[in-house]
Amino acid sequence: MNPRISRRHAALALLGTGLFIDNPLAFAADEWPSKAIRIVVPYAPGGIGDIVARLIQPALQDELKQAIVIENKPGASGSLGTEYVARAAPDGYTLLLALAAPQTLNQFIYKVGYDGVKDFEPITLINTNPLVLMVNPSLPVKNLKEFIAYAKARPGKLNFGGAGGLTQFAGEILKYEVGIDMVHVPYRGGAPAVAAAAAGDVQLTFANYSDALTWMQSGKLRPIALTSARRYPQTPDIPTIAESGVPGFDVTGWSGLFAPAGTPPAIVEKIASVLRPALHDPAMRTRMEKVGAEPGGNSPAEFGRQVASDARKWSEFVRTSGIQVTQ
Description:
Largest sheet: 10 strands, mixed
Radius of gyration: 21 Å
CATH superfamily of the largest domain: Bordetella uptake gene, domain 1
CATH topology of the largest domain: D-Maltodextrin-Binding Protein, domain 2
Number of strands: 10
Distance between the termini: 33 Å
Shape: globular
Number of helices: 13
Structural class: alpha/beta
Order of helices and strands: HHEHEHEHHEHEHEHEHEEHHEH
């Protein structure tokens, strides 16, 4: 029997005996939390998801008066940890620090055991962040136009590293839009993929801004363009792919907090009410911007609409483009 159905039946039985309080969801939130809370990050340590999970950890601990344990569960382009939380008890003690791809894209390009929209309760958007197309300095290209020409002259000869999800899909979209042939080389996290590009193991990478920052600053990787619709304030000299000759190109990463479907709304709102002011705090904005992120902090309902919209967008694009990718 589905455990969520069992819990619902138990609640109805209590209601019938008169033992249920007037507002059971408020009671759940009042009693919660009574023990440590886990936040599962579906990628390896050091990436943007791991970084922002640790940025919000102190605020949650201070306000909820319980330990917040960050647990990294990488694998299957983020799908492994995401599915783990989808199957967890909906009691508020196992949360997901989700990234955009496992939540809104992976189910349309890989075989996964969850629905990124239906199997989760959205809590709030934590941050948004652009991806950066970077090349090894050995490539004689300085901008997107030169890069496309170079790639077209060498079909199938360029390898791009990524951690799956958007870091792979951004490359697949660019291939589709401009007619170039590149080979994706998978890595278990964004940081290893960027390190591989710097070492010359692959010629280029699409990386979260946080993974890219130190490599760009050191000159070990050359930024070509951002995948987002607008330039990023921290590096205003880096153009977007859209303004560099591929109109409409927009692949923007984000991180958000989710609970398993069926988690009481009062618990969801309690967590959101802690994070909203924390994410709107100027000191938090400064810390976020240093790692190439812009803080969020919307309501569960607003975040839910954003997630559903992204899922529809990716589903339609995969259907119309016919793109097929492998993990």
